[in-house]
Amino acid sequence: MTAAQLTDVATLRQRARQHIEEGAITEGYSADREEVLKLLNASLATELVCYLRYKRHYFMATGLKASVAAAEFLEHAQQELAHSDQLAERIMQLGGEPDFNPEGLTSRSHAEYVEGETLKEMITEDLVAERIAIDSYREIITFLGNDDPTTRRLFEEILAQEEEHADDLADLLKDS
Ligand SMILES: [Fe+2]
Ligand SMILES: [Fe+2]
Question: Which class for 24: exposed (0-12), middle (13-18), buried (19 or more C-beta within 10 A)?
């Protein structure tokens, strides 16, 4: 069947009754599910590492009385945590298991956990991590193509927010 052809109603109805235990996964799901789950779990690890790094930076910047940066770090931390929840939910919908194991978290993640000593180093490391996330999410979106539009849309939403984060950090870097 080519992408442009539509399935007739009788076939759609009949197919939907097969394998109902699969929930949201229907016969028309054309992505490599194992591969998609791997990408989702690597991204979950990335978000968790970014959450932890931003939380560290939030507390350290507060100690440095750098309130503008601290507020930004806290906001980003909360948004990375929300991304991790969205990814875990999608993993469950696809019949996988979200990997929250702290062991090996930093090696599963694309982005790194770098503490940094000065405020400028913290902002720089956060910006580098955002740029890694942006590139990896963009590649995942291309990989998914039209095979899993829901997962692709999720990554598109997250990507847009990572681009905002990178932009915020680039502004902070100019002022620091
Ligand atoms: Fe994120
Ligand atoms: Fe981010």
Answer: exposed
Closest CA to 166 of 124, 138, 137: 124
CA of 162 to the centre of ligand 1 (A): 6
- Within a domain: 24: no
Number of domains in the chain: 1
CA distance 54 to 139: 24
| pLDDT tens readout for residues 40-81 | 999 999 999 999 999 999 999 988 888 999 999 999 999 999
The domain in which residue 119 lies consists of 31-175
CA–centroid distance, residue 146 to ligand 2 (Å) = 25
**Distance (Å, whole) CA 121 – CA 115:** 8
**Interval 81-113: pLDDT, tens:** 999 999 999 999 999 999 999 999 999 999 999
What is the whole-number distance in angstroms between the Cα of residue 52 and the centre of ligand 1? 12
| Distance of CA 29 from the midpoint of ligand 2 (Å) | 29
Distance 88 CA to ligand 2 centre (A): 17
Q: Counting ligands in written order, which one lies closest to the CA of residue 126?
A: 2
Instruction: Report residue 3's pLDDT band, with 50, 70 and 90 as the boundaries.
Output: low
Residue 134 falls inside a structural domain? yes
